[in-house]
Design a protein that fits this description.
The protein has 616 residues and is of the alpha+beta class. The protein has 21 helices and 23 strands. Bound molecules: adenosine-5'-triphosphate. Adenosine-5'-triphosphate binds at residues 39-40, 43, 81, 83-86, 94, 125, 127-129, 175, 254.
Length: 616
């Protein structure tokens, strides 16, 4: 342990975050107290957990507690705990860096617009650094539980880019965060204000939060406990107010916004557990990062066991926050053990059903559900592939753009209600964007017949529908694949058409086949994939992942009733015919949002066409 004072620079991201945070969170200043109290409570949780194996860690009579001390003269507010504490390397790692992937990208999104940035930073979670919203200097004194009193550490910074670390003597293990309040934050020296903020944000913290006010004038030193200090999830539902649920949500999630909804249940019987699950209103910035926090906080008989207990919910529900308290699990349960532990599988299956029910209930309110869907819809779609047992329930929660829903979105059930009885399938079309889908030549015949087509343009959609063969026993059919049986007589009779045969010859290298179609009304041609071929979205996904992708040639379908095709039939010059045939294929690719195989050749052919059109 070095005793000399050492100066360190903050990681560049921390400096930027500090700067932005101080400016954009000014109007939410009091959140710093919630964040520091949350950290103190986590530290007490961790110590209690470690002391299961090593009871000596908790000193005699030292019940875990959080102490707030106001010192008006010094202008400081101190948030202290007798939790796990930190050693020197913990301090340098935890209070000087942000070890979350995607941080740089996240910071790049911040615009300087206070309101927008405040929201974004809320999604990110500011934790300890929020101390600098109210303090122009922060001192942390800490000692790791189990180490001796000479192993204390003092960390200090004005939040301007550097911090110092030095060894100190500290009598008690645990951490004290001393805030030297800015002049405009001196209202946090008022016990009344502290009481109000703790009441609002931290009443449910499961350890006592004591407020110490030193003697002043006639008043003697005093100490009072500000919170009820019972585990909120252990209280009966009807005794917990909505405000309490919301503030508990913010405590465990570090979100600034209210949750969309929650579900609190005590399950009795052979397998007892209590769960409190929340649906957040906004996606965290790192929802798609593999190492992002996810899952629930696990407690056993109110003793905190672990964060991110991902075994209790499937991946695709990783946005759900909450706690689970399973009193029958062994206290020394580890992640590895959880994985193969029978009761955990049962709890997971039940919690999954519960979340899907919450979503179903939420979807009764279209407005609210829209908000949810825009944030988490893409993640929920992963469930179609991942969770065969609940596939139908998840499918009912999906939302799609549709040819029959001009602005909004539709559900599979609404599609089925609108569908004429004789229509045997649910049709969908995959495209890169909603507008590409709407303009696709594949829709022409569906429009003409008034048949509804769902428009899928999320990158995950192709993968997802590959797992969704049917919904309520109605098959899902890709409108751009294979031969459509919309009009049985179509196509077949014309298969030996001489123009089709010439096109086949001319394009033999590029296409699998050419055939006449009734699929098209206004367009001359379009591409169709065989039933078993990969679509362009899947292709790109596989290519991006470095996987080998089989070459597949599309089928070109042509509309023999189209003027262009009629004219093409009269072209005798072989070279000119080949150029026109190639253009017919290229424009079909463009309509799909794909680039022609040889863009330069396409440009040359178009150039020739334009010149001859202008000269005519
Ligand atoms: N009072 C404390 N006692 C012990 N360790 C602490 C304390 N406060 C902070 N730390 C340590 O510093 C780390 C960083 O804290 P910070 O609040 O910035 O982020 P976090 O709590 O990990 O993340 P978030 O707040 O976004 O959940 C914590 O993970 C913890 O290891």
């Amino acid at each position: 342990m070095s005793t000399e004072k050492q100066t360190h620079g903050f990681q560049a991201e921390v400096s930027r975050l500090l700067h932005l945070m101080i400016h954009s969170l000014y109007s939410n200043r009091e959140i710093f107290l919630r964040e520091l109290v949350s950290n103190a409570s986590d530290a007490c949780d961790k110590l209690r957990f470690q002391s299961l194996d090593n009871p000596a860690l908790i000193g005699e009579g030292a019940e875990p507690a959080i102490t707030l001390t106001i010192d008006k003269e010094a202008g400081t507010l101190t948030v202290a705990d007798n939790g796990i504490g930190m050693d020197e390397s913990d301090v340098v790692d935890n209070l000087g860096t942000i070890a979350r992937s995607g941080t740089e990208k996240f910071l790049a999104q911040l615009s300087g617009d206070q309101k927008k940035d405040a929201q974004l930073i809320g999604q990110f979670g500011v934790g300890f650094y929020s101390a600098f919203i109210v303090a122009d200097k922060v001192t942390v004194e800490t000692r790791k539980a189990g180490s001796d009193k000479a192993s204390g550490v003092r960390w200090e910074s004005d939040g301007q880019g550097e911090f110092t670390v030095e060894g100190i003597e500290r009598l008690q293990p645990g951490t004290a965060v001393i805030l030297h309040l800015r002049d405009d934050a001196r209202d946090f020296l008022d016990p009344f204000k502290i009481r109000q903020v703790i009441n609002q944000y931290s009443d449910h913290v499961a350890f006592p939060i004591n407020l110490l006010t030193p003697a002043e004038g006639d008043a003697e030193e005093s100490s009072e406990t500000l919170n009820s200090a019972t585990a909120l999830w252990q209280r009966p539902r009807q005794e917990v107010s909505d405000e309490e649920y919301q503030s508990f949500y913010k405590h465990i999630s570090h979100d600034f916004q209210d949750a969309l909804s929650w579900s609190h249940n005590k399950v009795e019987g052979a397998l007892e557990y209590t769960s409190l699950l929340y649906l957040p209103a906004r996606a965290p910035f790192d929802l798609y990062h593999r190492d992002a926090n996810r899952g629930l906080k696990l407690y056993v008989q109110r003793v905190f066991i672990m964060d991110d207990a991902e075994q209790f919910l499937p991946q695709y529900l990783r946005f759900v926050k909450g706690v689970i308290d399973a009193p029958d699990l062994p206290l020394n349960v580890s992640r590895e053990l959880l994985q193969d532990y029978g009761p955990v599988q049962k709890i997971r299956a039940a919690l999954t059903k519960r979340v899907l029910q919450m979503l179903k209930k939420l979807s009764n309110d279209e407005e609210q559900y829209k908000a949810f869907w825009s944030q988490f819809g893409q993640v929920l779609k992963e469930g179609i592939g991942e969770d065969a047992d609940n596939r139908e329930a998840i499918a009912a929660l999906l939302r799609f753009a549709s040819t029959h829903e001009e602005e909004g979105v539709t559900r599979l059930d609404a599609y089925l209600e609108r569908k004429p009885a004789e229509q045997e399938s649910i049709y969908y079309l995959l495209a890169d964007t909603p507008s590409a889908a709407l303009n696709s030549p594949h829709l022409e015949v569906f429009r003409k017949k008034g048949i509804e087509v769902l428009l899928l343009s999320d990158p995950v959609d192709e993968w997802m529908v590959s797992y969704l063969d049917s919904y309520k026993d109605v098959k899902l059919v890709n409108a751009a694949r294979g031969e459509l049986d919309l009009d049985e007589a179509a196509g077949e009779a014309e298969s030996d058409n001489p123009l089709v045969a010439r096109l086949k010859d001319s394009l033999a290298e590029q296409v699998e086949s050419v055939r006449a179609t009734r699929r098209l009304v206004d367009s001359p041609s379009c591409l169709v994939l065989a039933e078993d071929q990969l679509g362009p979205q899947m292709r790109r996904m596989l290519e991006a992942a470095g996987q080998p992708v089989p070459e597949n040639k599309p089928v070109l379908e042509v509309n023999l009733d189209h003027d262009l095709l009629k004219a093409l039939g009269t072209v005798d010059d072989g070279e000119r015919f080949n150029d026109l045939a190639a253009l017919l294929l290229d424009q079909a690719m463009l309509a799909e949002g794909q680039l022609p195989k040889d863009p330069a050749a396409t440009a040359r052919r178009m150039h020739q066409m334009l010149v001859s059109a202008v000269n005519n």
